[in-house]
Amino acid sequence: MFLTTLLDRHAILGNVSVNSKRQALQMVADVAARQLGLEAAEVHQALLEREKLGSTGVGMGVAVPHAALAGLDRMHGIFVRLDAPVDYDSIDDMPVDLIFALLAPENAGTEHLRALAKVSRLLRQKDLREQLRKMENPDAIYAILTDIADSNAA
């Protein structure tokens, strides 16, 4: 799975200001509503429900929130870089400033798990995280994410 098929350059926000995990997830839901034609409230609720099962803060300032939603025909990614980290109940207790959300069709099954694994592996790369933290332009963020991810997949 290549990130170019998962992540649309219009589903990337850089330098976003929020005060909480809840607001960060609302930002993801707003992008999903705008880009995918979903109801923002439905997406937000699905992400919050998933967080009740355990935090999707995977450590090192990274979160990978995810949810399965009706109305999707394939996996979609949304990337948000916060201008200041927020408390996220991460496994390492570090606040989060890099969020890569995954939205899957209700019947995605193993495709959803493969996408989660790929994104998690990708964002474990320290150099990549440092580059992403310096970027504000969504096109630059897209280029870095897709170039690195797709070259690793080859």
From TrEMBL:
| CDD domains reported in the protein's UniProt record | PTS_IIA_fru (cd00211)
Question: For this chain's UniProt record, which GO biological process terms are given?
Answer: phosphoenolpyruvate-dependent sugar phosphotransferase system
Q: List, alphabetically, the PROSITE patterns matched.
A: PTS_EIIA_TYPE_2, PTS_EIIA_TYPE_2_HIS
> GO molecular-function annotation terms?
protein kinase activator activity; protein-N(PI)-phosphohistidine-sugar phosphotransferase activity
InterPro entries listed in its UniProt record: PTrfase/Anion_transptr, PTS_EIIA_type-2_dom, PTS_Nitro_regul, PTS_SugarTrans_NitroReg
Q: Which residues form the PTS EIIA type-2 domain?
A: 5-148
- Write down the superkingdom of origin: Bacteria
Which NCBIfam families does this UniProt record tie to the protein? nitro_reg_IIA
- Protein's name according to its UniProt entry: PTS IIA-like nitrogen-regulatory protein PtsN
Origin species? Asticcacaulis taihuensis
